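hey
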């Protein structure tokens, strides 16, 4: 045991861990720094509310946390008091509990009894003013909150309105999957919210390869995962996880555990395939049942070749030379299997590489059940 993960490695694959670097999100972090940089110069021409929007697992929360990490460290060096806070709104039921959460973070000792939500926020702003401090408050999963409240958050309205009247001390970052500003009834709020220029799009497989590769260095002992296996992991995360980095990290975690249970000192492609099956909630092959006998045979042979070669990717030519049938037949079969989500076809440097998504163990179990197969 313990040959796969570094000491605290496994915990660095959990969503709460903020890695040292966020590949392909540097620009996003810099944009936030740029938006808020006037604060560091003790100026205040800053949008009062910034919106961050994009699909799940594209790094929205991490980017804000990384931005907080950097701006806090610059501010403290400059002797500027900036409080940063991120509140997850998924479990917040009302404006009242939202205001309470903000007040508890900014003025932990103060009594909140008897105050309304708006008054609590007024107290927070008062505190900030008296202490020459600023608050950058990120409301994470804000769209789920707004959707539950059917667009009527008086508190958010109040906070934004107060910024207009008083000197601004409190800045908001709204984070969500959808463009929730559209659900605000007041159109002025919609126009008020600044949208970041850097978009949060699903990661491409090459981006995921960088993200997962960097994380693997932090998490695994050296030599645990090779380039080809990283490639398979990123292709899986791109196809099955729709470009979510979270999916890829979970895949790495499961695969690392799989390898460790097995007493292996490396993560191999079968570990990745078994983890994929687990993430997709699959326990056996169901796809193959309506395949023609020839296609079934081909799939079994393919699995054997992968087993023998013990690799994540093979070229089409090496497969057809081993299958001993004409190449076109092999290409046809592979196209069908690609369509079924069983193999990965990847064009790279003028060659077509074939990867396998279904665990070899699943495929060989078909053979045991189907006595007519060779
Ligand atoms: N560029 C990146 N580099 C390294 N890790 C990343 C990157 N982007 C995302 N991650 C990791 O992927 C996971 C999901 O990221 P994050 O929580 O920031 O996504 P999100 O866009 O907020 O998703 P959701 O909408 O589901 O909340 C986290 O574990 C995070 O560390
Ligand atoms: Mg998030």
């Amino acid at each position: 045991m313990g040959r796969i993960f570094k000491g605290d490695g496994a915990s660095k694959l959990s969503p709460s861990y903020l890695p040292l670097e966020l590949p392909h999100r540097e620009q996003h972090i810099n944009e936030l720094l740029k938006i808020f940089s006037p604060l560091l110069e003790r100026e205040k021409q800053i949008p009062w509310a910034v919106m961050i929007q994009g699909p799940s697992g594209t790094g929205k929360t991490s980017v804000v946390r990384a931005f907080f990490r950097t701006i806090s460290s610059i501010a403290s060096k400059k002797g500027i008091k900036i409080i940063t806070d991120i509140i997850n709104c998924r479990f917040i039921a009302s404006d009242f509990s939202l205001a309470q959460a903000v007040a508890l973070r900014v003025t932990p000792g103060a009594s909140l009894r008897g105050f309304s939500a708006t008054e609590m926020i007024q107290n927070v702003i008062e505190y900030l003013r008296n202490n020459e401090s600023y608050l950058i408050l990120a409301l994470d999963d804000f769209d789920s909150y707004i959707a539950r409240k059917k667009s009527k958050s008086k508190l958010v309205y109040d906070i934004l309105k107060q910024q207009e009247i008083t000197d601004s001390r409190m800045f908001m970052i709204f984070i969500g999957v959808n463009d929730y500003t559209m659900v605000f009834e007041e159109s002025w709020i919609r126009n008020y919210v600044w949208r970041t220029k850097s978009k949060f799009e699903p990661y491409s497989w090459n981006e995921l390869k960088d993200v997962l590769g960097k994380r693997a260095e932090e998490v695994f002992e050296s030599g645990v995962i090779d380039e080809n296996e990283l490639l398979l992991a990123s292709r899986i995360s791109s196809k099955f996880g729709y470009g979510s980095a979270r999916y890829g990290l979970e895949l790495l975690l499961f695969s690392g555990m799989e390898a460790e249970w097995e007493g292996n000192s490396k993560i191999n492609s079968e570990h990745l395939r078994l983890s994929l099956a687990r993430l997709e909630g699959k326990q056996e092959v169901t796809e193959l049942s309506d395949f023609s006998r020839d296609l079934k045979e081909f799939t079994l042979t393919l699995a054997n070749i992968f087993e023998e070669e013990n690799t994540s990717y093979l070229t089409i030519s090496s497969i057809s030379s081993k299958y001993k049938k004409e190449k076109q037949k092999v290409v046809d079969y592979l196209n069908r299997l690609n369509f079924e989500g069983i193999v990965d076809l990847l064009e790279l440097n003028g060659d077509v590489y074939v990867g396998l998504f279904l665990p070899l163990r699943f495929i060989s179990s078909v053979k045991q059940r189907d006595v007519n197969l060779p």
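The beta strands are 49-53, 81-88, 133-140, 170-176, 193-195, 313-315, 343-348, 351-356. The pocket of adenosine-5'-triphosphate (ligand 1) is lined by residues 15, 19, 22-25, 54, 56-62, 177, 211, 215, 245-246, 249 (CB under 6 Å).
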